[in-house]
Amino acid sequence: MATPPRSNTGATVSRRAALKSLAVLAAGVGAACTPLRMAFRWAPGGFDDDQALVDRVLRGFATAVVPGLSVDDPNLVRHFYDDDYPLAKFRGYLASDLCQESVNRFGTPAFDQLPLAQRTKIIEGKLAKGGVTRRLYRGAVYLTQIACYAGIYDPDRGCPLIDFDGRRRNTSVADSTYPMPHRFLSHEITSDGNPL
Q: SS3 for the chain, per residue?
């Protein structure tokens, strides 16, 4: 049978006391160290279990990153749930972090209920931090903008915000060509078009 560990004073330390000390240390490190919290995908505050809450917060994030989007769009935050993108693993952490920053700055955990200017300030602050936090937020911003502007989940619809009609639209010849195309073409080298 193994002997119980001894403290530096020579007294034996019970297993319960050792585990309690380790738990306190882990909680302190996890709360203070963003890379560790992200590595373990630890999202405090029930964000791992409450998908409706995560969805609401991410919708607030997306409408701040791309103003003009409808919060009710079914594809608005679909990219955060798509396992083809690495951010899917961190959606709970991202939502938790946004709400915590909302508490720190504006005294409310409801990030999605904040006005656009305040949500934007929170995101800008996170982008300015650097390190892992900046990479997470930059990736989330870029992926949200790409998903919206490129219409990756509904390419037929396109993106009305940038007048992208989507694919396979029946447009007239006048809408899909330039009038007086000779303005955009180079001059012929020879009269019959052959260089020799």
A: CCCCCECCCCCECCHHHHHHHHHHHHHHHHHHCHHHHHHCCCCCCCCCCCHHHHHHHHHHHHHHHCCCCCCCCCCCCHHHCCCCCHHHHHHHHHHHHHHHHHHHHHCCCCHHHCCHHHHHHHHHHHHHHCHHHHHHHHHHHHHHHHHHHCCCCCCCCCEHHHCECCCCCCCCHHHHCCCCHHHCCCCCCCCCCCCC
pTM of the model: 0.64
Residue 151 domain boundaries: 51-162
Report the pLDDT value the prediction gives residue 28, as an integer from 0 to 100.
Answer: 45
How many domains is the chain built from? 1
Residue 146 has pLDDT above 50, yes or no: yes
Q: Is residue 123 assigned to a domain?
A: yes
Mind listing the pLDDT tens digit for each residue in 19-64? 665 555 454 444 444 454 444 444 555 666 678 888 999 999 999 9
